[in-house]
Amino acid sequence: MVRKCLFPVAGYGTRFLPATKAVPKEMLPLVNKPLVQYGVEEAVEAGMSFMGFITGRNKGSIEDHFDKAFEVETAIAGSSKEKLIEPVRALIEENEFAFKRQNEMKGLGHAIHCGEVMMGDEAFGVVLADDLCIADDNDEGVMAQMVKIHEKYGCSVVAVQEVPEENIHKYGVIAGEQEEDGVYRVSDMVEKPAREDAPSNLAIIGRYILTADIFPKIAETGAGVNGEIQITDALLKQAKEGKVIAYKFRGKRFDCGSLDGFVEATNYVYERFFK
Ligand code: UTP
What's this model's pTM, rounded to 2 decimal places? Predict the structure, then answer.
């Protein structure tokens, strides 16, 4: 069972300036719900109940979002608008939320390392909320699918998606042996490879389940691509021990860290859930 989920939300979201000057990227709404809430809902659906956030300066509104808002809740009490706030109220009541700051933006690997005390010595999920994953009709979410894969193989799991050649340089890319349909035992991983160096077209997206031995491996990982401590480099060490599975998930994924992906996701969510 995977009980805990880590949300690295410390990044600056520079692609969304000026919106992200004072508002965290993860609080930008897809229709009427902030991106980060979609991520938390996906983790809860997967059976997780402890949400740990790695935050930074200017990210206080994420903490406020997962807290009671007495004034507005009192103002709308008894009105038809209560149902709008009910889902997040239930998340707050039924789950635990913890926050820790990443003082310096040293990369995703470093952000995850900041979660060591919160995650402890058990396997945990990681959700990058700017990757929005939406389940197919009558199917479970990506994290729930990954928990099953983790339970079967007992090691770290990364979600992968086939990506067109011209976009492969934006991702961590895996090489591996197929274990079963859509499931690969990872043998190699490269962060942001040039098109000609990519070992496959299978790109890692923002969903992971990591076993706790990732922490000492991150600790001994130096700065990689872009001078950042890359989670891919630490995962490669687990992969060399045969302990990383890549899983081609079912469902839709939108790169909401980019303007195009964000608009596409907004239109999709509006058409599917609001019309
Ligand atoms: P990105 O590089 O995509 O996000 O990091 P960003 O820096 O927020 O966005 P841009 O590129 O400036 O527009 C991927 C994820 O890793 C987190 C980010 O918050 C995001 O969810 N991250 C990245 C951290 O928490 N800390 C870091 O040092 C780096």
Answer: 0.96
